[in-house]
């Protein structure tokens, strides 16, 4: 018994590590930095998160204590340190530290690195009324020596911090008054120089910096002599500065849309005019050039890059970045605002030229990388940070254990698409080393979007990589790098973020993919259901269209919604990939709410708010349709019309319920002794808990006919000796309909007994077999048929091709029906209730998502068990064993206020899941102690790695209950206490963060620091389970 308790606590301790990694593009980015030595990129967000990226799979994440926007980030090159400036005027120092060795897949991994906050500094205000605004930081400059940080302020002063201790050097402070004294009288004229807009160190002479003031003045300041070496008397409001590599000239950009080139010469202390001034998109008023870069090349013509500068009247609303070299001129036109950009170029001092190889642009909604080495400057495909929300995500679907052949064909189709749009250069952000072992299986995540596209993502590892994009709209998508017709400015659309859909009817609502037959079903907002097949060759063909009237010309009904989409009436070209075979158009053209695919039977089923239908896509004919609210649509002994038998049954149930509710039961109160915890949990199993009163829902609800779920199964429906294909449908009113199907060549139905008729001439038939009406009319969320061993039936082709264990067809089957209020198992074929769990009555929550998950044992490789996972409207997860429906474990996962996150959750078959934490980010979590996807990475630094320090005791402490629980778990396991560590944007009291699953969880958009609540239920079944393990 003691060994069992120890093992159980160890397993539950592992299960506390829910959140593993975040996929997608950071929500609301606000700052960008690049380390040219380590080849690492950092992105700061408005919620206070810092995310560092390197090669695919190399990720580090940290979170500031306050949810304040990150305005600037600067790397200390080669050191694994970075500085962040927040909107509250605080500067933080972060560094990569060595984490504890990990054991991954039985192999010990050393050198794992995590990101940790080290220290912080706030610039003190100067005496006076406007002290706060005068010392507000506007710009930071890190000297190449990495021992001094220059800070420009709104008051025009420049302060200096010693690194890495972040101590102020008062003797170096440069106030605006000292600069004003060196100015000519005609330039001074009593006006303030304004805030410091830019600080740039001389590329060849360390210790000399350019200081640019908002008024237009630029000063070359010598730190060693504390003297003004040269003045550049600009008269236009300054935006940014950049040095030319030799240090003989620099370029300034201004708010009038122009830039100026200035020469730096010895002996000339005051420069009145620049060498040249240009307004590239003039002569009409233009917007400011916010940032400008000047990069030299061996060809002699420098590459000039700048953001903004568009004519106000014509293109003032465009988000643009211009690239110029000699006669080549391209204006990159983005669909979201430019946050910042940098170039990847040579930084060796002995090199004469910059030779830029890539341009990296951080936009508000995506990251764009431009190849500057190939002609035409094409864009590079992103292996990660792809914008999931290029069009709003409307649904998702996950496929585990993708067959290698299907994977290869998808990759090839995706490469064919990228070949038309992108260059095939190497990814420039390639720092760090991914220590995670290669995935044992390939995983696909499919996302449906508002614009009618379906995107296929490689979800096998930490980096969520785009593989292939399928478009279902009639009009082919435009090439994002296609040159526009306008001659000036020479715009070129770049990027894939396009949040605006021309037609809301194109939105994808449901997706289903059979990985063995390569058949894909996509259903949309206007009642369109498309069946597609995978092809490696380009094809030109007509798409068959079948119209299915779900109401069958029902009198008195008038559809007042949107029209159906018009199908293409002529042959169309389809590139390699998934190509449409048949289009099924539901009438009325309401949004499809459920879809099911059985590729082995060539059948699809689909449902809307007006009913559901069954379609044979091989023979191109509709099998049957049914409107759930039509009482005359169902005939036979199980009609929806109330019968005397049914009324008597309900009357007896009400009497029995009143007797049960009248009895008073005493509930044993748990004692505080830890030793009695397990025995008390077992004793309480037989005590009936207090239940909430659940009111039945109205049968007249206008949404009662919405079909919520559909399911195909080969099971016993007519009798207990003959099994065959069946279709199950659940509605919003708590009704479940079961159809017996007669599929030619399948089962023991009449279709197989007919002689002489060819299989192609025999049609699929459907006969209503059973109807189940749940008592409180709660919406049916999920239906699943269990075999004689209580296991879910295998997917199509798995049993017939020996890809999975054949189902038990000798013992009686059962059907598991999950509604929003309860879970219930019925025996088949009699449809009598076997067991149930009233989740709403017991827990006060409603079921939102349900999945049957196979959990593999960490002790035995060949042992696994299926568990029912429920996600509720409160954001917590409930796990039940099947078919007994005994609760096993419950823990919080998603905030109950995050309605979109709960609605977007999708489970995998091996115990993982995804949900949206923002429109552009998926949070990945794991319910399994064995299957975990987490970043494990290392970085080779110029300094020795510091070990992770001990826990900070000055931070906020968790509750006593949480501390007691942690102590119990750790003492039972190894006699020591284990401290939580941070994962992703989930941060502990120290601010330490890294890429792995941990115990403390905080979203980037909420940052609530709470330890994970965990509730464990014990039962004899669960005890037997762990003894088996």
Automatic annotation (TrEMBL):
Q: To which protein family does this belong?
A: Belongs to the WD repeat L(2)GL family.
PROSITE patterns attached here?
WD_REPEATS_1, WD_REPEATS_2
Q: What are this entry's molecular-function GO terms?
A: GTPase activator activity; myosin II binding
Report the SMART domains cross-referenced here: WD40
Span list, region Disordered: 980-1004
| Signal peptide span | 1-20
> What's this protein's name?
LLGL scribble cell polarity complex component 1
Q: Start and end of every Lethal giant larvae homologue domain? A: 278-378
Record's compositionally biased regions (Polar residues):
980-991
InterPro entries (UniProt xref): Lethal2_giant, LLGL2, WD40/YVTN_repeat-like_dom_sf, WD40_repeat_CS, WD40_repeat_dom_sf, WD40_rpt
Q: Which controlled-vocabulary keywords does the entry list?
A: Exocytosis, Repeat, Signal, WD repeat
Q: Which Pfam families match?
A: LLGL, WD40
Transmembrane regions listed in the UniProt entry: none
The WD repeats extend over 63-104, 444-458
Lineage of the organism: Eukaryota, Metazoa, Chordata, Craniata, Vertebrata
Output the Gene Ontology cellular-component terms: cortical actin cytoskeleton; plasma membrane
Q: Which GO terms describe its biological process?
A: cortical actin cytoskeleton organization; establishment of spindle orientation; exocytosis; Golgi to plasma membrane transport; regulation of establishment or maintenance of cell polarity; regulation of Notch signaling pathway
């Amino acid at each position: 018994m003691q060994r069992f308790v120890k093992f159980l606590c160890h397993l539950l301790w592992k299960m506390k590590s829910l959140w593993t990694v975040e996929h997608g593009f950071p929500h609301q980015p606000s700052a960008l930095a690049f380390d040219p030595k380590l080849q690492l990129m950092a992105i700061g967000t408005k919620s206070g998160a810092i995310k560092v990226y390197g090669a695919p799979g190399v990720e580090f994440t940290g979170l500031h204590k306050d949810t304040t926007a990150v305005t600037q980030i600067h790397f200390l090159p080669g050191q694994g340190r970075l500085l962040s400036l927040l909107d509250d005027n605080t500067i933080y120092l972060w560094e990569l530290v060595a984490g504890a060795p990990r054991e991954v897949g039985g192999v010990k991994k050393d050198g794992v690195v995590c990101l940790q906050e080290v220290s912080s500094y706030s610039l003190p205000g100067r005496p006076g009324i406007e002290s706060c605004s005068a010392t507000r930081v506007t710009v930071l400059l890190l000297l190449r020596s990495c021992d001094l940080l220059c800070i420009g302020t709104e008051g025009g002063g420049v302060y200096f911090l010693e690194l890495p201790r972040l101590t102020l050097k008062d003797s170096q402070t440069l106030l605006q008054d000292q600069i004003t004294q060196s100015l000519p009288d005609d330039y001074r004229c009593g006006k303030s120089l304004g805030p410091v807009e830019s600080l740039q160190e001389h590329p060849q002479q360390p210790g000399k910096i350019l200081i640019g003031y908002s008024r237009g003045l630029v000063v070359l300041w010598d730190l060693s002599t504390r003297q003004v070496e040269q003045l550049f008397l600009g008269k236009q409001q300054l935006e940014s500065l950049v040095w030319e590599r030799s240090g003989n000239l620099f370029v300034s950009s201004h708010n009038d849309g122009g830039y100026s080139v200035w020469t730096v010469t010895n002996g000339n202390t005051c420069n009145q005019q620049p060498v040249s001034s240009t307004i590239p998109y003039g002569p009409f008023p233009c917007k400011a050039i916010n940032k400008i870069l000047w990069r030299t090349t061996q060809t002699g013509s420098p590459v000039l890059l700048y953001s903004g500068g568009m004519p106000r009247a014509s293109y003032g609303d465009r988000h643009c970045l211009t690239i110029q070299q000699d006669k080549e001129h391209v204006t990159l036109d983005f669909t979201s605002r430019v946050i910042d950009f940098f170039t990847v170029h040579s930084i060796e001092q002995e090199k004469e030229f910059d030779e830029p190889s890539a341009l990296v642009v951080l936009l508000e909604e995506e990251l764009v990388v431009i190849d500057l080495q190939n002609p035409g400057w094409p864009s590079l495909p992103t292996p990660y940070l792809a914008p999931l929300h290029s069009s709003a995500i409307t649904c998702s679907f996950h496929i585990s254990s993708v067959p290698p052949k299907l994977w290869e064909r998808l990759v090839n189709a995706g490469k064919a698409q990228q070949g038309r749009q992108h260059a095939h250069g190497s990814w420039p952000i390639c720092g760090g080393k991914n220590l995670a072992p290669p995935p044992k299986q390939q995983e696909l995540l499919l996302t449906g979007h508002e614009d009618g596209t379906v995107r296929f993502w490689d979800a096998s590892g930490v980096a969520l990589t785009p593989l292939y994009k399928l478009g279902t709209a009639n009009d082919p998508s435009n090439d994002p790098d296609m040159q526009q017709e306008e001659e000036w400015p020479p715009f070129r659309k770049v990027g894939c973020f396009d949040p605006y859909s021309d037609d809301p009817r194109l939105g994808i609502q449901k997706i289903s993919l059979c990985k063995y037959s390569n058949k894909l079903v996509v259903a949309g907002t206007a009642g369109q259901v498309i069946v597609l097949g995978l092809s490696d060759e380009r094809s030109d063909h007509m798409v068959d269209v079948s119209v299915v009237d779900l109401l069958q010309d029902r009198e008195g009904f008038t559809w007042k919604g949107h029209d159906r989409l018009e199908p293409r009436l002529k042959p169309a070209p389809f590139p390699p990939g998934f190509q449409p075979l048949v289009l099924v158009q539901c009438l009325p053209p309401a949004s499809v709410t459920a879809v099911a695919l059985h590729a082995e039977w060539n059948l699809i089923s689909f449902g809307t708010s007006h009913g559901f239908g069954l379609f044979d896509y091989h023979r191109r004919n509709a099998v049957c349709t049914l409107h759930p609210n039509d009482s005359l649509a169902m005939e036979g002994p199980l009609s929806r019309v109330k019968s005397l038998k049914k009324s008597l049954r309900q009357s007896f149930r009400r009497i029995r319920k009143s007797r049960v509710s009248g009895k008073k039961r005493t509930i044993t109160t748990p004692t505080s002794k830890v030793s009695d915890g397990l025995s008390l949990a077992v004793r309480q199993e037989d005590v009936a808990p207090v239940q909430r009163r659940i009111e039945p829902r109205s049968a007249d609800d206008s949404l009662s006919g919405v079909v919520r779920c559909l399911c195909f199964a080969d099971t016993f429906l007519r009798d207990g000796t003959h099994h065959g294909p069946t279709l199950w449908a659940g509605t919003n009113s708590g009704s479940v309909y079961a159809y017996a199907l007669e599929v030619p060549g399948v089962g023991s139905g009449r279709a197989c007994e007919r002689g002489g008729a060819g299989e192609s001439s025999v049609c699929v038939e459907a006969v209503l077999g059973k109807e189940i009406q749940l008592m409180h009319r709660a919406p049916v969320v999920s239906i699943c048929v269990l075999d004689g061993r209580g296991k879910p039936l295998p997917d199509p082709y798995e049993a017939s091709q020996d890809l999975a264990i054949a189902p038990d067809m000798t013992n009686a089957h059962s059907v598991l029906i999950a509604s929003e209020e309860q879970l219930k198992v019925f025996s088949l074929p009699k449809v009598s209730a076997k067991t149930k769990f009233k989740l709403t009555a017991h827990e006060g929550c409603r079921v939102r998502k349900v999945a049957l998950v196979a959990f593999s044992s960490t002790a035995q490789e060949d042992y696994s068990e299926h568990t029912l996972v429920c996600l509720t409207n409160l954001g917590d997860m409930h796990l039940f064993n099947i078919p007994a429906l005994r609760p096993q474990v419950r823990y919080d996962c998603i905030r109950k206020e995050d309605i979109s996150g709960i609605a977007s959750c999708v489970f995998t078959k091996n115990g993982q899941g995804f949900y949206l934490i923002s429109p552009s980010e998926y949070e990945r979590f794991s319910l399994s102690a064995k299957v975990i996807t987490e970043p494990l990475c290392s970085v080779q630094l110029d300094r020795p790695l510091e070990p992770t320090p001990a826990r900070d005791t000055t931070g906020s402490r968790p509750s006593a209950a949480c501390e007691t629980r942690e102590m119990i778990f750790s003492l039972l396991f190894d006699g020591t206490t284990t401290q939580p560590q941070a994962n992703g944007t989930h941060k502990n009291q120290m601010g330490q963060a890294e890429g792995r699953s941990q115990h403390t969880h905080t979203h980037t958009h909420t940052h609530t620091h709470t330890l994970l609540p965990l509730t464990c239920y014990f039962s004899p079944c669960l005890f037997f389970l762990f003894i088996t393990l």
